[in-house]
Amino acid sequence: MLCCDIILTYEDNxxxxxxxxxxxxxxxxxxxxxxxxxxxxxxxxxxGRQGVSRRLTFESLFHLAVAFILKRELGVPLSRGLELAxxxxxxxxxxxxxxxxxxxxxxxxxxxxxxxxxxAAALEDASTPPRGRxxxxxxxxxxxxxx
Length: 147
Prior knowledge:
This protein is an alpha+beta fold.
């Protein structure tokens, strides 16, 4: 087995979340998350071709959560917030330099814990809506339902 095969197998087995669950966990509308993924952060998603729901890993959700916090608290544009989120996620103490004399630090342990709890709550409430066309009703099915 080649190294690339191992990586691909690992990525295929990673836990991922639907955009519905992710939006609920992040506290935003599903349509808003879809728009963000389309415009600002398409590199965060897995899947998403026609007929297949987009999937997000926990790390992708963490990046989005950091970007949303930076946008809400500091007015940082979402695209710049996502860039900072990558650095924060990779930094040992969740700190990245900002300019020549500043440092931005986020309590990543606390945020990961909060995000985990939020995802657990979202998964409990998650119900997947049926996709595609509704099943055709036949006269035989209607007779069964009436009796």
